[in-house]
Write a structure and sequence with these properties.
Elements: H1 2-5, E1 12-17, H2 24-37, E2 43-48, H3 51-69, E3 77-79, E4 119-123, H4 124-129, H5 137-143, E5 147-151, H6 159-174, E6 178-183, H7 188-198, H8 208-213, E7 218-223, E8 226-231, E9 239-246, H9 252-264, E10 268-272, H10 276-289, H11 312-326, E11 335-339, E12 353-357, H12 361-368, E13 387-391, H13 399-402, H14 417-430, E14 432-435, H15 439-447, H16 449-458, H17 463-482, E15 511-520, E16 526-532, E17 551-554, E18 557-562, E19 565-570, E20 573-577, H18 582-585
Parallel strand pairs: 1-6, 2-4, 2-5, 3-4, 5-6, 9-13, 10-11, 10-12, 12-13
Antiparallel strand pairs: 1-7, 7-8, 9-14, 15-16, 17-18, 18-19, 19-20
Helix pairs in contact: 2-3, 6-7, 6-17, 9-10, 14-15, 15-16
């Protein structure tokens, strides 16, 4: 790659595909170092899909940068502005630039300046807004012209975000910039959206046979408009994962009993659910089955789940808690953590056994990356073989085409039920998944249009919902296209036409609420505010950003009203209450410090 880059003054795109835990983060920083040495870049923006994943990986990036350049010589900014943990997946949507200036370096004072950092770790939203017809987009766009754009977990973007990101990458490379995209599970069709926009030659979408034949891991490079694909040797060991399905997805008590049984045998157990609701339900059942010391808990002894509906101040501690229990240096045995998608991205954690809701294959492979991740760990007896248990319903997944549930179906995290159904079929057929050897074949078998078309023709119950999901995807691409700033748009043009609600992603925007004064959370931190997804809050005035009325703190959390809605923020995160729920929330719980 070094030799090739010397011929890249006119811009380049690299797509790096490799399994989780193989050092993609460190490789991307080394790539930055090489470009910097050649005088092709001056800075770097490291983009993650969510604010949570950006905060989680910031320390690793800072360590790698310090190792390369010396401690503190290249400061690494954590570029995370006001954010919203939306829906059940914990994703954030940046909508405005209302951050107050502070004493730090000028580029860190306001979100609109983050892209001017010498090296910053933030969300992909900042990059997307640079190409949109949005406030301060020209400032954002001009700020990273000489920066390497690194986008991790690029597969995590939906159709709306992918369309905008592809435009950003094309424009950035065409102006002589450099982009480095990374994923463990990027399908060939998704990769083609980026390659086709930067390569000179016209590329047709690969057939299923062609896509499956592509090497893995590999780096695909587009330099001076020419595409080259370089196979790479696998990093680390091959991992054969035994995977079985259990039809208890809809019974949180059974899921908790399953997890508790493994904890009693001395195992570290990770439970990943598709929604916050199901995550919290399992957490509550586990607390009836196990002592507090066997369940994830923070430094003050509070048992907590791991999801995106926590305040920022508490979230840092919860991330540290799971890394203390499941991280590389942990000596812990006999412990369980329950979480959502927040566990599957950017955390360097290791489980002896994984229990996970069924999900699309690319997501499943991400989750499997947390299973037997650290080779130096001595496994408890009975857990020497990596084993994953996929939770499925006791019926055909076609039921989710009629009524979405458990994060699967229309307007849910995993909208294409067909892909989830094919994933279930594949893992039940195979029983054993070998990573990274099978990764390419598995992803294409479950996401390639040919595979989906074949499955739908054999299972017509999925046809209507699949067509609806494809229609939604096309509509989101169209919405993204309409929100792009014209390439010839000059600074100052059409200022009065800039929409106030331009958003970096389609979804549940909700509201961000600030308390009039910080309130101490049950974890012991002063919480300044919370984010409330709109589906939990139907009655608040539009634009409300300060909690009006009484805020009550008690030993178990914080109560407050927003309009006619009553909320409670405690050790399970943010919950909406009915009036009858109030007395129960004030009772101390087992293990409370």
């Amino acid at each position: 790659m070094n030799t090739t880059l010397r011929n890249a003054p006119s811009g380049s795109l690299a797509i790096f595909e490799s399994e989780t835990g193989s050092g993609k983060t460190e490789t991307s920083i080394a790539h930055f170092g090489r470009l910097l040495e050649l005088g092709l870049v001056d800075g770097c923006f490291f983009a993650l899909p969510t604010r949570t994943s950006a905060a989680q990986i910031h320390g690793r990036v800072r360590w790698a940068v310090d190792k390369m350049f010396g401690n503190g010589r290249v400061p690494v900014t954590l570029a995370v502005p006001g954010y919203l943990t939306g829906g059940s997946t914990g994703e954030e949507i940046i909508k405005s630039d209302n951050a107050s200036p502070g004493p730090e370096n000028w580029h860190a004072e306001m979100s609109k300046r983050y892209l001017a950092s010498r090296f910053a770790v933030g969300t992909v939203d900042q990059i997307l807004l640079s190409a949109m017809h949005a406030k301060h987009s020209t400032l954002r766009w001009s700020s990273f012209g000489r920066s390497l754009l690194i986008v991790d977990e690029v597969h995590a973007s939906d159709a709306y975000m992918t369309r905008i990101l592809a435009e950003v990458v094309e424009r950035h490379v065409n102006r002589g910039g450099h982009a480095f995209l990374m994923s463990a599970t990027l399908g060939s069709i998704a990769a083609q959206r980026f390659i086709s926009r930067t390569a000179i030659a016209t590329f047709s979408s690969p057939t299923l046979k062609e896509a499956t034949a592509l090497p893995y891991p590999c780096i695909r490079h587009v330099i001076a408009g020419k595409l080259t694909t370089t196979p790479l040797p696998p990093v680390g060991r091959r991992k054969s994962v035994r995977i079985v399905t259990r039809n208890i997805m809809k019974n949180a008590a059974d899921v908790a009993e399953l997890a508790a049984g493994h904890v009693r045998k001395g195992a570290r157990v990770l439970v990943i659910r598709n929604t916050v609701r199901e995550c919290v339900a399992v957490q509550k059942h586990l607390e009836k089955l196990l002592p507090p010391e066997n369940i994830l808990r923070t430094s003050n002894g509070t048992n907590v789940p791991h999801h995106g509906r926590f305040a920022t101040e508490d979230r840092v501690e919860i991330d540290q808690a799971i890394e203390r229990a499941f991280g590389k240096n942990s000596k812990r045995d006999a412990v369980v953590a329950v979480g959502t998608q927040t566990i599957e991205q950017s955390l360097d954690i290791d489980a002896d056994i994984l229990i996970t809701d069924i999900c699309p294959m690319d997501v499943l492979l991400q989750r499997l990356g947390r299973l037997h991740r650290h080779t130096q760990r001595m496994r408890p007896e009975g857990f020497e073989i990596p084993t994953a248990i996929a939770l499925v319903p006791d019926h055909d997944l076609s039921d989710f085409t009629k009524k979405a549930d458990h994060g699967i179906g229309t307007d849910r995290a995993y909208e294409q039920v067909t892909q989830v159904a094919i994933t279930r079929k594949e893992i039940e057929r195979r029983g054993m998944l070998v990573t990274p050897d099978d990764n390419r074949e598995l992803v294409e078998a479950c996401t390639h249009p040919e595979s989906i078309e074949r499955f739908v023709s054999e299972n017509p119950d999925y046809e209507q919902q699949n067509s609806k999901a494809e229609g939604y995807e096309l509509a989101r691409q169209t919405a993204a296209q309409s929100g792009l700033r014209d390439r010839d748009w000059r600074y100052g043009d059409h200022v009065s036409d800039i929409p106030k609600n331009a958003a970096s992603r389609i979804g549940d925007h909700g509201i961000r609420l600030e308390f009039k004064r910080p309130c101490e959370s049950v974890l012991g931190f002063n919480v300044r505010g919370v984010a409330i997804p709109s589906y939990l809050n139907k009655s608040s005035p539009e634009g409300l950003d300060v909690v009006e009325g009484l805020v009550v703190t008690n030993p178990c959390g914080i109560e407050f009203r927003v309009g006619a809605d009553l909320f409670f923020y405690g050790r399970y995160g943010l919950e909406k209450l009915n009036e009858r729920d109030q007395p129960d929330r004030r009772r101390p719980y087992p293990g409370h410090p």
